[in-house]
Write a structure and sequence with these properties.
Strand order of the largest sheet of chain A: 4-3-5-6
Strand content of chain A: 5-15%
Oligomer: homodimer
Domain Toprim (chains A, B): 83-179
CATH topology of the domain at 81-174 in chain A: Dna Topoisomerase Vi A Subunit, Chain: A, domain 2
GO molecular function (chains A, B): DNA binding; zinc ion binding
Structural class of chain A: alpha/beta
Organism (chains A, B): Duncaniella dubosii
Function (chains A, B): May play a role in DNA repair. It seems to be involved in an RecBC-independent recombinational process of DNA repair. It may act with RecF and RecO.
CATH class of the domain at 81-174 in chain A: Alpha Beta
Helix content of chain A: 40-55%
GO biological process, one term (chains A, B): DNA repair
Chain lengths: 208, 208
């Protein structure tokens, strides 16, 4: 049922908030009424932070990560290993890998994975620009860091074929294995099989 | 874990969004990244609608419902029955009653119910202002429309005592009974008992 609103301003905010993912009109109304109960300065700060973010952030022209500048701080950082590119699905994945503290190379944000069911073909992703980056010649390794799903594997395979012409570039992918913290009992057989095939020297894990 | 953000603007928006109820930092990040993927105009419109709402909406000086004017449209509507006041907990409840299309009187928004467990005493609610409205003399009926919970009933009882001095004002409360659409099998005994005690003439329900 469409609700009658006492105020056009409230209705406007509810309509806009309900465009967000996972937020229906009922939740949007609850959020709007909460914002009304907040300190006025805080309510205005929320709105301004959204406007400033939307106006101020664009996509890095090299790796397509979000950036406040033409080239993002990662691509612009001279101390990073410019010969290694980690291919990820989304901006969020860049943050996840940065948070590991284990990676000092560059990134390339595809913007998703190939998914014919959702109408996402290779042309909808930043694949041509990846091939161009590799063709430029400075890259020695491309790490495929996509989800271990059907769509991710399909995309991995497609990228592998597109990059096959660069025979001196190593194409690697993330290790498949038992997630840290998981019990063997609850780990699926395919993962267990891969974790056996790709077993590593125990002494290596001690050294790290 | 505190996440590292590539952008201060993104971090700012995530911080502000995560102040909303039920929205943690992970959800806030998901929302912010969604806003970044939206059309720029739509993203800015979201922020502006929040600012406009927060700046433009205040509380009606009579009934404490939200309003864009000193006195809300309901209190200012000369066609409404000014002798009846429906006491509700929140702005949302006003909308619910308006949506029934069954009520033509005025409202009084308490701002909650008495709840010692949550530190909400009578002085934290708009009770004095309700007593003042009734004392002014034009009101003939006060409908207590609070939740049928322990706190709601406590507040009903408190209001009843505070308004007892106005012996010519009827104090009524919402009917308790079986919810429309509910099966008897799943209706609790207290509700069933009240619905028996307060049974109504079947012929009345046909006429409506």
């Amino acid at each position: 049922m469409q609700q009658e609103f006492a105020s056009k301003l409230l209705e406007g905010a509810v309509t806009e908030l309900s465009r967000l993912p996972g937020i229906g009109r009922k939740t949007a109304l609850r959020l709007a009424l909460h914002i009304l109960r907040m300190d006025e300065g805080m309510g205005v700060a929320l709105g301004e932070s959204i406007i400033n973010m939307r106006r101020g952030i664009r996509y890095c022209s090299v790796c397509h990560n979000i950036s406040e500048t033409e080239v993002c701080p990662i691509c612009g950082d001279g101390r990073r290993d410019r010969a290694t590119v980690c291919v990820v699905e989304s901006v969020k994945d860049v943050m996840s890998f940065e948070n590991t503290g284990q990676y000092a190379g560059l990134y390339h944000v595809l913007g998703g994975v190939i998914s014919p069911m959702d109408g996402v073909g290779p042309d909808r992703l930043e694949i041509d620009s990846l091939v161009e980056r590799v063709a430029a010649g400075d890259i020695r390794e491309v790490i495929l860091a996509l989800s271990a799903t059907m769509e991710g594997e399909t995309t991995n395979f497609y990228l592998f074929r597109r990059l096959a012409e660069f025979s001196d570039v190593r194409i690697t992918q993330l290790a498949r294995g038992v997630s840290v913290g998981n019990e063997i009992e609850y780990t699926d057989e395919i993962t267990l099989g891969r974790s056996l095939l790709n077993r590593t020297l125990f002494s290596d894990s001690i050294r790290r």
